[in-house]
From TrEMBL:
Transmembrane segments: none annotated. It is found in: Cell envelope. InterPro entries: Bact_Solute-Bind_Prot2, Peripla_BP_I, SBP_2_dom. Its main location: other. This is Rhamnose transport system substrate-binding protein. Residues 3-205 form the Periplasmic binding protein domain. It comes from Blautia caecimuris.
Length: 255
């Protein structure tokens, strides 16, 4: 069977370079989605959300949930986590804007993406900062652990960040009984759709994967290939997807 395109999510950026390069040499259009392979192994990468967009969404959530002022903290994964650090730096950059001037970032804590350590770190944050208004956890392990601590303790501190709907559904709500008013991640259905449309555009030679290429992804709209931080190119789906009380029941069974 003749193959026209490959769109892959890479658990390891480098492991498949030899076979993916061979595929491209044979004329097969290679792209990746969700988790990227290195630039030499792809023509372009379909990314869920850009670093800047994630930073903006999380900071706006902290601003909203805190009421615009007060102490807040970040619960990250490990101090070496590349994506976490990039998102945190993006948040710090956004914080320079005047509207965030009354927010005080008191600590960046690390739960190492371990449930028990994330639990312990959350408890320590509550103890060390009794006036803490918001914890932002841009890690699915951290946010789930923090959500349980805050909800079980009845803390006034609230939570936002990046989480899995299946793990966070019982904690999301607009009332005092729930620890997380809303959070973000991505819409995996739309990531898949954009991956398919990108492959079609490559096969039809509407794009070649270079920065500046433009194409239409069906009902998703118009997209442009841009430079990625690793030296390759990417197509960004858009801003992170918001999960709140209006849609969490729909999404908790999806992923």
């Amino acid at each position: 069977m003749e193959m026209d395109a490959i769109c892959i999510a890479g658990n390891d950026e480098n492991a498949l370079q030899a076979c993916l390069s061979e595929a491209m040499d044979a004329g097969i259009k290679v792209s990746c989605l969700d988790a990227k392979v290195n630039p030499a192994s792809r023509m372009t990468f379909v990314n869920q959300a850009g670093t800047k967009e994630i930073g903006e969404a999380l900071m706006d959530a902290v601003l909203d949930i805190s009421g615009g002022e007060g102490q807040w903290a970040i619960l990250s994964a490990t101090s070496q986590a590349t994506n976490q650090n990039a998102w945190i730096e993006a948040m710090k950059e956004v914080m320079k804007e005047d509207k965030y001037s009354k927010l005080e970032l008191v600590e960046i804590a690390y739960g190492d993406d371990e449930p028990q350590k994330s639990t312990d770190v959350t408890q320590a944050l509550l103890q060390n900062y009794p006036d803490l208004k918001v914890i932002c956890a841009p890690t699915t392990v951290g946010i789930a652990s923090a959500a349980k601590v805050l909800q079980d303790s009845g803390a006034s501190c609230k939570l936002t960040g990046l989480g899995l709907p299946s793990e966070m559904s019982e904690y999301i709500g607009d009332d005092e009984a729930h620890s997380c008013p809303y959070m973000f991640l991505w819409n995996p259905v739309d990531v898949g759709r954009l991956g398919a449309y990108t492959s079609i555009a490559l096969v039809n030679e509407e794009i070649t994967g270079v920065s500046g290429d433009k194409f239409t992804a069906g009902e998703l709209g118009d997209y442009e290939v841009i430079e990625a931080s690793d030296g390759g190119t990417e197509v960004i789906l858009g801003a992170p997807f918001r999960f709140d009380s209006s849609n969490i029941d729909e999404w908790k069974d999806v992923y």
